[in-house]
Amino acid sequence: MSRNNKAKKGGYRAPGDLDATIAYRIENYTPADVPHELWGSTLRPFVIPALIAARPRGIATMEQFARVLTLISVWCLEQGIDLNVEKVLDPDTVERFFALGLRDLPSRGTYRTVLRRLGRELTKAAPWEPRPEPAPRRKIRPPYTPQELALLEMDARAQPTHDKRRTAMGFIALGAGAGLDGRWVTRVRGSDVTRTGDAVLVHVGEPRARAVPVLARSEDLVLALAEAAGDGFIIHRSTEHRNRTNKLAASLARGPDHPVLSVPRLRSTWIVEHLRRGTRLPELLAAAGPTKIESIDDLLQYVEPLDETLATRLLRGGR
User: Fold this and answer.
1) Which end of the chain is more exposed for a tag (fewer CB within 10 A), N or C?
2) Residue 272 pLDDT
3) In the chain, what is the straight-line distance between the N-terminal and C-terminal CA atoms, in Å?
4) 215 and 251 belong to one structural domain
């Protein structure tokens, strides 16, 4: 009987794209700690088809699958459980095996994870809950254009009250000038701004305490806001809740057809400006605080490509 026919007889379908080397290792797999007769007559007809159906993509994965399937099949025999994939890889069997059959092994957590994966992939009737749908990727907020940023500044100066003008200018200065978002932007006090040498620094706290250099074009505004705030908050209505911060920004008055002031978009504007200026990624990430690299990747579309000659020179290691 061919290998594929054996697999079909056991309720499995041997995939045609199984790597030849892995297929060979599966066919010749023999556990050293299982009696030869027990393996050949009882365990092998269960373990080998299961391995084929699991379609391991690497030797290490195949060996891990083989090891854990052998362990659980030996335990099932001891418990009087039939070597049927729906019974061996049933959630209840897997959890009992984890609690009783693996309690003395240091890799028990890993083995349970592997068995849960195999159970979902190889069974049809066993009551495994489906894997949760992956969370949709959060869309990055686009940066403001220079024209939009100018309109935001115009709206900030036109706010109806002093506090609102300070709030709007604070959002713009700390967001587009230092990349602060809802985690920090409303918690900056005037005393958190210092000048060191030629740089103006904004000192922020958790979730990652650091000193962020302000872009040169925003330094004077940040210093003026800090001086006016003193030991108080630069943004008058301080809050530690990011959603409230966004609502506070969106509530500010704006001119007809002017963009809404968005804290995430201000941060994107700051990141893109650094990318355009060639700031190295390690320094940019350190200044940005907790930031997913995917967010940086999504913003690259707003960075104009270099001239091919210059790009080639840079990629060769030149300046």
Assistant:
1) C
2) 96
3) 66
4) yes
Q: Would you give the DSSP letter of residue 80?
A: T
- Same domain, residue pair 114 and 153: no
220 lies in the same domain as 253: yes
pLDDT digits (tens, 9 = 90+) for 245-294: 888 888 899 999 999 999 999 999 999 999 999 999 999 999 999 887 77
**pLDDT < 70 stretches in the chain:** 1-17, 134-138, 237-243, 319
134: DSSP letter: P
- CA dist., res. 306 & res. 88, Å (int): 59
Note down the domain range covering 169. Answer: 146-315
- Give the SS3 label for residue 133: coil
Structure tokens at 170: 């604070």
φ, ψ of residue 86 to 5 degrees: the values are -70, -25
Indicate the average pLDDT of the chain: 88
The Cα–Cα gap between 232 and 191 comes to 8
Is residue 158 domain-shared with residue 222, that is, in the same domain? Answer: yes
Q: CA-CA distances (angstroms) from residue 88 to 10, 47, 289, 298?
A: 13, 11, 47, 44
Q: Does residue 167 share a domain with residue 55?
A: no
C-alpha–C-alpha distance, residues 226 and 35, integer Å = 77
For residues 152 and 75, state if they share a domain.
no
Name the nearest CA neighbour of 276 among 296, 252, 290. 296
CA atoms within 13 A on the CB side of 176: 24
Q: Decide if 172 is inside a domain.
A: yes
* Exposure on the CB side of residue 228, measured as CA atoms within 13 A: 16
* Same-domain status, 195 and 262: yes
User: Considering only CA atoms, which of 63, 88, 65 is closest in space to residue 11?
Assistant: 88
Tell whether 140 is covered by a domain. Answer: no
